[in-house]
Amino acid sequence: MTPIRLALTLLFAAPAALAQDLPAPDADPLLTVSGEIGCTNDGDSAVFDRAMLESMNPVTIETETIWTDGVQSFTGVPLGEILSAACAEGSAIQATAINDYAVEIPRADWEREGPVVAYLNNGEPMSVRDKGPLWIVYPYDSEPEFQSEVTYSRSIWQLDRIVVTE
After folding, report:
1. By residue range, what is the domain housing residue 95?
2. Domain for residue 107, yes or no?
3. DSSP string over 58-125
4. Which of 8, 25, 153, 166 is packed most tightly, with the most Cβ within 10 A?
5. Which residues form the signal peptide (predicted)?
Protein backbone atom coordinates (compact mmCIF):
# COMPACT_ATOMS: atom_id res chain seq x y z
CA MET A 1 0.00 0.00 0.00
CA THR A 2 1.38 3.40 -0.94
CA PRO A 3 1.96 5.97 1.81
CA ILE A 4 -0.79 8.21 0.40
CA ARG A 5 -3.28 5.35 0.23
CA LEU A 6 -2.38 4.31 3.79
CA ALA A 7 -2.86 7.88 5.02
CA LEU A 8 -6.26 8.12 3.33
CA THR A 9 -7.32 4.76 4.73
CA LEU A 10 -6.37 5.82 8.25
CA LEU A 11 -8.01 9.22 7.83
CA PHE A 12 -11.37 7.76 6.87
CA ALA A 13 -11.21 4.69 9.11
CA ALA A 14 -10.35 6.59 12.29
CA PRO A 15 -13.80 8.14 12.89
CA ALA A 16 -15.49 4.80 12.27
CA ALA A 17 -13.12 3.10 14.69
CA LEU A 18 -13.85 5.69 17.37
CA ALA A 19 -17.62 5.26 17.16
CA GLN A 20 -18.86 2.34 19.18
CA ASP A 21 -22.22 0.68 19.38
CA LEU A 22 -24.11 0.12 22.60
CA PRO A 23 -26.41 -2.86 23.00
CA ALA A 24 -29.99 -2.14 21.99
CA PRO A 25 -32.54 -1.83 24.77
CA ASP A 26 -34.97 -4.70 25.27
CA ALA A 27 -37.78 -2.50 26.59
CA ASP A 28 -39.06 1.01 26.03
CA PRO A 29 -36.25 3.54 26.49
CA LEU A 30 -36.34 5.81 29.53
CA LEU A 31 -33.46 8.03 28.45
CA THR A 32 -32.09 9.23 25.11
CA VAL A 33 -28.61 10.76 24.88
CA SER A 34 -27.62 12.57 21.68
CA GLY A 35 -25.37 15.34 20.44
CA GLU A 36 -21.61 15.14 20.83
CA ILE A 37 -21.41 11.39 21.51
CA GLY A 38 -19.42 8.59 19.94
CA CYS A 39 -21.31 5.49 21.13
CA THR A 40 -24.82 4.87 19.83
CA ASN A 41 -27.48 2.19 19.55
CA ASP A 42 -30.33 4.03 17.78
CA GLY A 43 -29.18 6.08 14.80
CA ASP A 44 -27.15 8.99 16.17
CA SER A 45 -28.43 8.48 19.73
CA ALA A 46 -27.76 6.29 22.72
CA VAL A 47 -30.96 5.03 24.31
CA PHE A 48 -31.21 3.34 27.69
CA ASP A 49 -34.03 1.29 29.18
CA ARG A 50 -34.40 0.52 32.89
CA ALA A 51 -32.51 -2.78 32.66
CA MET A 52 -29.56 -1.07 30.96
CA LEU A 53 -29.43 1.59 33.67
CA GLU A 54 -29.74 -1.01 36.42
CA SER A 55 -26.77 -2.90 34.97
CA MET A 56 -24.46 0.14 35.07
CA ASN A 57 -23.05 -0.12 38.61
CA PRO A 58 -25.85 1.67 40.45
CA VAL A 59 -25.13 3.71 43.55
CA THR A 60 -27.35 4.75 46.42
CA ILE A 61 -27.12 8.15 48.05
CA GLU A 62 -28.93 9.32 51.15
CA THR A 63 -29.74 13.00 51.25
CA GLU A 64 -32.40 15.52 52.06
CA THR A 65 -33.92 17.53 49.25
CA ILE A 66 -35.91 20.75 49.20
CA TRP A 67 -38.77 18.86 47.50
CA THR A 68 -39.18 15.92 49.90
CA ASP A 69 -39.55 15.39 53.64
CA GLY A 70 -36.59 14.03 55.59
CA VAL A 71 -33.64 12.01 54.39
CA GLN A 72 -34.37 10.10 51.19
CA SER A 73 -32.56 7.18 49.59
CA PHE A 74 -31.96 7.53 45.84
CA THR A 75 -30.61 4.70 43.70
CA GLY A 76 -29.39 5.27 40.19
CA VAL A 77 -26.40 5.66 37.92
CA PRO A 78 -23.85 8.45 38.26
CA LEU A 79 -24.50 10.92 35.44
CA GLY A 80 -20.85 10.64 34.43
CA GLU A 81 -21.17 6.89 33.92
CA ILE A 82 -24.12 7.29 31.54
CA LEU A 83 -22.25 9.96 29.60
CA SER A 84 -19.14 7.80 29.52
CA ALA A 85 -21.19 4.89 28.13
CA ALA A 86 -22.37 7.24 25.37
CA CYS A 87 -18.77 8.39 24.79
CA ALA A 88 -19.77 12.01 25.47
CA GLU A 89 -17.26 14.49 24.09
CA GLY A 90 -18.84 17.84 24.95
CA SER A 91 -18.36 20.40 27.67
CA ALA A 92 -21.96 20.52 28.90
CA ILE A 93 -25.31 18.82 28.58
CA GLN A 94 -28.81 20.04 28.12
CA ALA A 95 -31.03 17.82 30.25
CA THR A 96 -34.71 17.93 29.33
CA ALA A 97 -37.82 16.62 31.07
CA ILE A 98 -40.92 15.12 29.52
CA ASN A 99 -42.65 18.53 29.82
CA ASP A 100 -39.74 20.14 27.87
CA TYR A 101 -38.28 21.90 30.94
CA ALA A 102 -34.53 22.02 30.23
CA VAL A 103 -31.39 22.83 32.20
CA GLU A 104 -27.71 23.02 31.36
CA ILE A 105 -25.24 21.03 33.41
CA PRO A 106 -21.50 21.65 32.94
CA ARG A 107 -19.02 18.81 32.49
CA ALA A 108 -17.39 19.66 35.83
CA ASP A 109 -20.53 18.43 37.60
CA TRP A 110 -20.48 14.97 36.05
CA GLU A 111 -16.71 14.46 36.23
CA ARG A 112 -16.74 14.26 40.00
CA GLU A 113 -18.91 12.50 42.54
CA GLY A 114 -21.93 14.60 41.89
CA PRO A 115 -25.29 13.92 40.33
CA VAL A 116 -26.96 10.56 40.05
CA VAL A 117 -29.67 9.75 37.52
CA ALA A 118 -31.99 8.15 40.06
CA TYR A 119 -34.61 5.59 39.12
CA LEU A 120 -35.52 4.52 42.68
CA ASN A 121 -36.58 6.67 45.63
CA ASN A 122 -36.56 4.83 48.95
CA GLY A 123 -36.27 1.55 47.05
CA GLU A 124 -39.31 2.15 44.85
CA PRO A 125 -39.56 3.15 41.17
CA MET A 126 -40.70 6.73 40.74
CA SER A 127 -43.84 7.40 38.74
CA VAL A 128 -44.19 10.50 36.56
CA ARG A 129 -46.44 11.92 39.30
CA ASP A 130 -43.60 11.39 41.83
CA LYS A 131 -40.80 13.05 39.78
CA GLY A 132 -39.92 9.92 37.83
CA PRO A 133 -39.15 7.79 36.15
CA LEU A 134 -35.71 9.50 36.20
CA TRP A 135 -34.52 12.34 38.42
CA ILE A 136 -31.06 13.96 38.47
CA VAL A 137 -30.26 14.11 42.18
CA TYR A 138 -27.13 15.59 43.73
CA PRO A 139 -25.83 14.44 47.13
CA TYR A 140 -26.99 17.75 48.63
CA ASP A 141 -25.97 16.87 52.18
CA SER A 142 -22.40 15.91 51.22
CA GLU A 143 -21.12 19.38 50.26
CA PRO A 144 -22.37 22.88 51.06
CA GLU A 145 -21.89 23.93 47.42
CA PHE A 146 -24.62 21.43 46.44
CA GLN A 147 -27.07 23.41 48.58
CA SER A 148 -27.41 26.29 46.16
CA GLU A 149 -30.03 27.62 43.79
CA VAL A 150 -27.77 26.72 40.84
CA THR A 151 -27.52 23.08 41.88
CA TYR A 152 -31.21 22.87 42.77
CA SER A 153 -32.07 24.22 39.30
CA ARG A 154 -29.98 21.42 37.72
CA SER A 155 -31.89 18.75 39.66
CA ILE A 156 -34.31 17.99 36.88
CA TRP A 157 -36.99 15.37 37.41
CA GLN A 158 -39.01 13.49 34.79
CA LEU A 159 -35.76 13.45 32.79
CA ASP A 160 -36.10 11.76 29.42
CA ARG A 161 -33.36 13.21 27.18
CA ILE A 162 -29.89 14.64 27.26
CA VAL A 163 -28.08 16.50 24.49
CA VAL A 164 -24.31 16.71 24.86
CA THR A 165 -23.07 20.10 23.63
CA GLU A 166 -19.63 21.49 22.76
Report:
1. 20-165
2. yes
3. -EEEEE--SSSSS-EEEEEEEHHHHHHHTTB-SSEEEEEETT--EEEEEHHHHTSS--EEEEEETTEE
4. 25
5. 1-19
